[in-house]
Amino acid sequence: MKERHETVATAESLTGGLVAAVLTSVPGSSAVVRGGLVVYATSLKHGLAGVDDELLAEQGAVHQDVAAQLADGARIACGATWGVGLTGVAGPDPQDGIEPGVVHIGVSGPAVAQVRTIGIDGNRHQVRAGAVVAALDLLSRLADQRD
């Protein structure tokens, strides 16, 4: 991304900023990372990241379309080339009937948008860590396709 002068931003729910933290742990990341939104509360998904209120009311906060809109919202709000959005249930309890370990990851960028839904077994820490790895993998694969 740095060579292409591209940037990235995040809108994170279940990971609470962990993707942005991992991205900024790389020396020189300030040339690529624009920022991130931690939108743990459902109201902030709309208020900060622009997720449609009707979608949140009808589908709830843990939905693949929410992840897609979080990715777009991060990209737009932070003025980035790429946006990454995550929502899911880290556990230990289900949320709105959705079991722990369900994670929706959205990535949006130049002429591309993709959502991946995964299931991660394990405790809360393992689900969040797995979500970070999966999000960075999806971002990397989509960004590399532009080469």
TrEMBL record:
SUPFAM superfamilies: CinA-like (SSF142433). Gene3D superfamilies: CinA-like (3.90.950.20). It comes from Actinophytocola glycyrrhizae. This is CinA family protein. InterPro entries: CinA-like_C (IPR036653), CinA_C (IPR008136). Residues 2-141 form the CinA C-terminal domain.
